[in-house]
Structures are given as C-alpha cells and as structure tokens.
C-alpha cells in the first residue's frame, strides 16, 4: 500500500467525508443482438414498439439494425441501476415478436457479410450521418466484427470527494482541472490493472467458426462449429475482436487530458492510405465520413474512455476540453451469458470498488516501456488468463499473475470496506469475496464455465448461447403494467421527436456534409 493510497483512505474514512462516497454514480450500457427463434441473426427492422433508435434515451441500436443497446441512467445505488436495466430487458422481451436477445458477447451464426443490416436512423441529416458513420465502419473493419456485443460501465466519483482530496493535497489548480487530472490518473491505473477484470469477468473464450469467414487464425478447434483458445478469457477483447491496423498508431497514454484530446484530434485529421484508396463518395453513394485514421472520436477502440455529457452539437473532445472529465466509461466488460442481463449486482459492486481503488491508488505517469507493457499484460490475460503459473510483466520484471492479483485484491478490499462504510452493510466486501474465490478456483471464472458447459452438454458455442438466450427470455418476459406504460410512452415520444427533426431539416444531405467539413476547418 503506497503512502498516497493509505493517506487518501484515512482521509475519506473520516465520518464527515465517507458519506460523500454514497453519491458515486454508476450507469450501464448493454449491447445485445436480436436473433430469430431458430438462433439466426434477425434481419427485421428495429421494432417500432421500441421507439426511434435516433432519439430514444434508453433503447437504441449500435452498429447493426439487430444490435440493440440498452442504456440506464446513472444511479447512486448499483441495485437501482440493475433494476432499471431489468425493466428495459423485460419491456423489450415483451414486444419482440418471435425473437430473442442473444446471451453472449460473440455473435450467433451470421449471414454473409453483405446481408448483415446496418442500423438505420431515419431520413434526417443527423440520422443519415449516423448511418454513414456505420457504413464507414463496415468498409474499415467489416460488418462481422461490428456485431460483437459488450457492456460499457459508466462510473463517477462525486465532486465533493475531489474537493476533499484537493484541499488535503493543497493543490492550487481549478477544481475542473484537478478533477480531470484525477480521472486521468484513474484511467492510467485502470489500464495497468484491467487485466484482472479480464480474468474475473472475461466470458468469451470461444466463437462460432462462421465469425472468422475462413480468415487465417491461431485458434484451436473445439468441435465442428466452434473455435477457441484453451486458456482464453475474452476473445472479444483480443486481436480477433476489436482490432485496427490504422488505430495502432494512436498512442494516448493518458498522462494528461490534453494529451488524450490531442491524440484523438490528430487521428480524426490524419489521412490513412488504405482509407484514401476507398474514398468518401463513389457512384452517387457515400462510403465513409472521411479518409482519416478515425472518422469521428468515438471510433477509437479503447478499454476505457474519459467522458463528459455533450451539449447541443458538441463533439466529445469539445465537451472534454471546455468542461473537463465528468465520468469514465469502462468498455472491456464481456456479457456473462449465464446472467439474464449479462451482469449482476455482485459484479457491479466489485467494479465500483475496483474503480475507487484505481482513483485512490498512486498513479505515476507512463514513461519508457510502461504503455507497451500494460497493453501486453492485458492481451496475455485475454488470450491465456487461465493458464497455470501465468507470468506478467511489472516494471520490466516478471511477476506471477496470482501474486499480483492477490496484492491488488488487498488494495481493493480497503476500498470495498470504505464503500460499505458509506452505504452501510457489507455488500461490497461480499462481492469482493466472490471474486477472490475465482483466483483460488479458476473453474469459477465465466470463461471456464462457458467451456465446461459446452463439454458437459456436448454442444457448440452457438447451441449453448442460444439455449441460454431462451432461458433468459423466460426469466424476463413479464414486465409490470407500469413499466410497459413507461416505455410505451418513451417510444411514442422518441418517434415524435424523430419526425420533428426530419421536418426541421432545411438542406440536402450533400449540403449537410459540406457544412460539416467546413466547420472542421
């Protein structure tokens, strides 16, 4: 335990300080594919009963038309967040006509590449812009890769906690700058230690053979339809999943917010030869927003992002630059196929303890080989996390993953105790104990459970995920009447809002794009 960490723990454990931690907020974004009752990707349009994906605050689509995204508000109690997520699931199940929600991160058996439908957002210019962005993703990374689903976990620490920490440290920055620096420090530690999350929560050690489209790979064959790696935790987060040669040159090591912003601004303005060869417009059709490394900032694939709620037509980096970091978005969480909502309360409580630990632990800036070492540790656990006697690197020295994880658990334990002191009870410590058990018994990890279940049932990955999809649909099928009324009203409002946006457009999409390019110059 570092002196900085111990000092912050003592400070925040004081009776007049600890209660501020009750106001940490957490929100969840869960992605899931719609599939037919035969386990195939649903090719139908976004159900009208779910409202407009352009304007709905809780139910939208991500890349593909059948890739739903459920978004909760940020709540001070993890149980509230999970309750809202359950309401969204129950309502959605109630209106799907002969379709199910896919239970896993890696996709079901997919149709041919060109038959995967890209999400549509209506005829407005902003709706067409969102569609064009996804067209660009398809030509850059393939439609298949964009069908992978995950959970994004949003977390913030209340401003009052940053005030306490800043006053104690006698820091003279503005509170906005101090808070941003602290969140950047949290992000550095998250990147250092997120390999632990891959071991504990990685749930995608296998994939349907169709996902690879006969491309070369280094996976083993589990059965006629399934490829896997014997010790993998999360193929979703491996080079098999979200990969991009173009993005390999983006190196925001999060030593300060401006470094991050500058890296993204450079990427959205730097041409990439392979994308230049594709072009932006051909034969009367738009192909991508631009030919740069990134079309927009959100295209950058990262395990965690600094975030600030945007206002009006602000770009994400503009909001961060003007008003600083408001919360972080952890993006490396697999969907647990055994859980009806892909995540449960103990996992959420552990993530909160982990993120508070990342915030309070000393976080030196990255230098030398630290960034590549951090990235390699992450990939090692993603691909081999359950291998016996696995070794990672820390400060250029080999260290047992088990030993390092044990050290981290001791620090996270102190943060779990702090959060339990704030909230009352022992839920955070109990959640942490569940994760410690996974370190002692690898068969308790979701990735091991997926492979063990396939072997026990003599079934493929797709068969297992489909059976679990059916099971979860039965579990979450009957929403309360007031929940139905609430989401029916949101759906109707979102459709009306989309129609108003479409009616207000005063220029063609070509003119809209010309104006878009002009504002960037």
Automatic annotation (TrEMBL):
Its EC number is 6.3.2.2. GO terms for molecular function: glutamate-cysteine ligase activity. Belongs to the glutamate--cysteine ligase type 1 family. Type 1 subfamily. Residues 10-381 form the Glutamate--cysteine ligase domain. It comes from the Bacteria. SUPFAM superfamilies: Glutamine synthetase/guanido kinase. Keywords: ATP-binding, Glutathione biosynthesis, Ligase, Nucleotide-binding. It is an enzyme of class 6 (ligase). Pathway: Sulfur metabolism; glutathione biosynthesis; glutathione from L-cysteine and L-glutamate: step 1/2. It holds the Pfam family Glu_cys_ligase. Transmembrane segments: none annotated. This is Glutamate--cysteine ligase.
């Amino acid at each position: 335990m570092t002196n900085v960490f111990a000092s912050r723990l003592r400070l925040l454990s004081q009776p007049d300080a600890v209660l501020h931690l009750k106001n940490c907020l957490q929100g969840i974004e869960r992605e899931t594919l719609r599939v037919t009752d035969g386990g195939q990707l649903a090719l139908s349009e976004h159900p009208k009963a779910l409202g407009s994906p352009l304007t709905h605050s809780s139910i939208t689509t991500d890349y593909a038309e059948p890739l739903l995204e459920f978004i909760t508000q940020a709540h001070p109690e993890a149980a509230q967040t999970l309750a809202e997520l359950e309401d969204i699931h129950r309502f959605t199940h109630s209106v799907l006509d002969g379709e199910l929600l896919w239970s896993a991160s890696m996709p079901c058996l997919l149709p041919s590449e060109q038959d995967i439908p890209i999400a549509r957002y209506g005829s407005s210019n902003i709706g067409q812009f969102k569609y064009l962005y996804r067209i660009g993703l398809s030509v850059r990374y393939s439609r298949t890769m964009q069908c992978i689903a995950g959970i994004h976990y949003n977390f913030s620490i209340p401003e009052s906690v940053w005030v306490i920490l800043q006053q104690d440290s006698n820091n003279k920055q503005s509170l906005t700058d101090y808070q941003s620096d602290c969140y950047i420090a949290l992000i550095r530690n998250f990147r250092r230690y997120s390999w632990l999350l891959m071991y504990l929560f990685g749930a995608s050690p296998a994939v349907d053979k169709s996902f690879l489209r006969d491309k070369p790979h280094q996976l083993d064959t589990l059965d006629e339809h399934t490829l896997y790696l014997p010790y993998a935790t999360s193929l979703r987060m491996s080079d098999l999943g979200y990969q991009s040669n173009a993005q390999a040159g983006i190196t925001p090591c999060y030593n300060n917010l401006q470094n991050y912003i500058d890296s993204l601004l450079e990427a959205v303005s730097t041409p990439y030869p392979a994308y230049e060869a594709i072009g932006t417009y051909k034969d009367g059709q738009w192909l991508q927003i631009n030919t740069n490394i990134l079309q927009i900032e959100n295209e950058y694939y990262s395990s965690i992002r600094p975030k600030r709620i945007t206002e009006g037509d602000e770009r994400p980096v503009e909001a961060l630059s003007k008003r600083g970091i408001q919360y972080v978005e952890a993006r490396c969480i697999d969907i647990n196929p055994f859980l009806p909502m892909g995540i449960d309360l103990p996992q959420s409580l552990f993530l909160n303890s982990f993120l508070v630990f990342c915030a309070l632990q000393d976080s030196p800036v990255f230098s030398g080989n630290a960034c590549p070492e951090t990235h390699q540790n992450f990939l090692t656990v993603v691909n081999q996390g359950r291998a016996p006697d696995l070794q990672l690197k820390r400060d250029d020295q080999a260290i047992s993953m088990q030993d390092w994880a044990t050290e981290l658990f001791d620090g996270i334990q102190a943060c779990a105790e702090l959060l339990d002191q704030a909230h009352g009870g022992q839920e955070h410590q109990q959640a942490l104990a569940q994760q410690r058990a996974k370190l002692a018994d690898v068969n308790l990890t979701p990735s091991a459970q997926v492979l063990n279940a396939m072997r026990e049932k003599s079934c493929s990955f797709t068969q297992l995920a489909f059976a679990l999809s059916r099971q979860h649909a039965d579990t979450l099928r009957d929403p309360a009447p007031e929940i139905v009324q609430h989401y029916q009203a949101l759906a109707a409002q979102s459709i009306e809002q989309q129609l108003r946006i479409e009616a207000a457009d005063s220029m063609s999409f070509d003119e809209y794009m010309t104006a878009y390019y002009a504002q960037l110059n």
